[in-house]
């Protein structure tokens, strides 16, 4: 999936919601690199657009579940499932999301 012009928008806004055929996701910058992850916390569905990004960790604002931004691994808090993190890169000013192959399509 390619999102045109998202690099500049992320630089301005920091966090952008992506409504995709696979559901809602969030794009954000982490150390200047794009991170794309599920929009809802695996714990109780907290909105991860509001998550804090601290030293490479995403912290849910509701109950503080903490996930590694690089791979979504749950490392602290009540979440018992990892966060879906999708490989993404910039191509010029565009964001390219590299969905894994699978039955969910899109
Ligand atoms: S909803 Fe995110 S930690 Fe509870």
UniProtKB/TrEMBL annotation:
One Gene Ontology term of the molecular function aspect: oxidoreductase activity, acting on paired donors, with incorporation or reduction of molecular oxygen
Name recorded for this polypeptide: Rieske 2Fe-2S domain-containing protein
Keyword list, A-Z: 2Fe-2S, Iron, Iron-sulfur, Metal-binding
Pfam families hit by this protein: Rieske
Entry keyword Transmembrane helix: no
Entries under InterPro entries matching the protein: Rieske_2Fe-2S, Rieske_2Fe-2S_sf
Domain Rieske: from-to ranges: 2-97
